[in-house]
Amino acid sequence: MRKTVLSVILLALLILTFISNHIFTENLVTPKKVVFDNGDTAWMIMATALVLLMTPGLGFFYGGMVGKKNVISTMLQSYMAMIVVTILWVVIGFGLSFGPSLGGIIGNPSAYFFFNGIGTNTAWSTAPTIPIMLFALFQAKFAIITPALVTGAFAERIRFWAYLLFMVLFILLIYTPLCHMTWHPDGLLLKMGVLDFAGGTVVHMSAGWAALAGAMFLGKRRGRKSNPARITYVMLGTALLWFGWFGFNAGSAMGANELAVQALGTTTVAAAAAAMAWVFMDKILGHKLSAMGACIGAVVGLVAITPAAGFVSMPHAIFIGLFSSLVSNFAVSRFPRGKIDDALDVFACHGVGGMMGMLLTGVFASKAINPAVLDQGLVFGETTLFVHQLMGLLLVSVFAFMGSYFLFFIVNKITPLRVSEEKEALGLDISQHGEFL
Fold first, then answer.
1. Spatial distance between the Cα atoms of 429 and 270, rounded to a whole number of angstroms
2. Cα dihedral 177, 96, 175, 106 in deg (nearest 10)
3. Chain-centroid distance, C-alpha 22
4. CATH number at residue 266
5. Which end of the chain is more exposed for a tag (fewer CB within 10 A), N or C?
6. Does residue 334 carry a pLDDT above 70?
7. What's the total number of domains in the chain?
8. Contact in structure between 178 and 396 (CB atoms under 8 Å)
């Protein structure tokens, strides 16, 4: 039955590809060529590649944390996100995110179906110096990593086909509305005054809340928890994530400009400050200074600075990294593990880190750093932006958590989410893929 359904889906995709290509080729009118900035285009090509590198980096980061019998499956979940979401984005995802606005909630996908009209001769309104195709591909990499982030919460116990179905539904029904509301010029959150430079709401909060929903719905892992398979994988993954994050944040300036330099600088110091705070806090609490702690702290800092990267100064970025790391460390230590099994602390790191970044953007955002800031943060004596950030945080949290929990419920009705107890004990590498380290 499953093979039949998959065959039908592939056949339908082939037919749609042929028909859409024929229709669009027949009706395409070549627009007048726009002269783009070569420096901006070169940087954004590089930034797009850097952001894509983050997803296999995440695979190593997560893969090193799970038990040895689940490393391949955990890493493959990230790699499959690169494969599936790329096609989904071209077919309909970009249109849902950046198509003509339908009430500020979602885009009309028909405008950009199969990348119709997404070429190299025109530009997107918020990125006028680069081709719109480059903008669309840059945004695709953000969509790719978001469901991959969620996988750490239900590691070592989810059926792979069920995960793929959830990933598709999550992109279509959770990610694209948040992307549209936050980054489309007519988006609800953007018009409300919410600032999110590179994905605090769209990527990290949505992934964090979805992770919490998944951990709650799937339940705890059975038996004794495994030791991390490869700490060196975690360190390698952290290095790739940190390196790729420069494209993530500095690339969100949409050009090789002063704002990109500022975002690169704030990203650098926030990650370093957060890593330092995490290991120092571990020492104060009586733990050894660990490689895992340093790596997790750095990633929390990268998460927290993401929404603020292009809006805050370097000293404020250091504070954001330090403070967010302490809060996430506390959240990890106090997380109710007896009831909720968020295997790799996705909510405590990405969810909490993303929320801290959103709130602290409302505290430190400055017009001197970015003239696009209409209302400055609390430290400058203004309250409007902080209120907007708080309202946006609450709306996104409710939508992402409730929506994701509902998707897990629907997927479980279609196909069971959890592997059997025997397959979980055997390990997902063997039971789901027939492979092992």
1. 36
2. 0
3. 34
4. 1.10.3430.10
5. N
6. yes
7. 1
8. yes
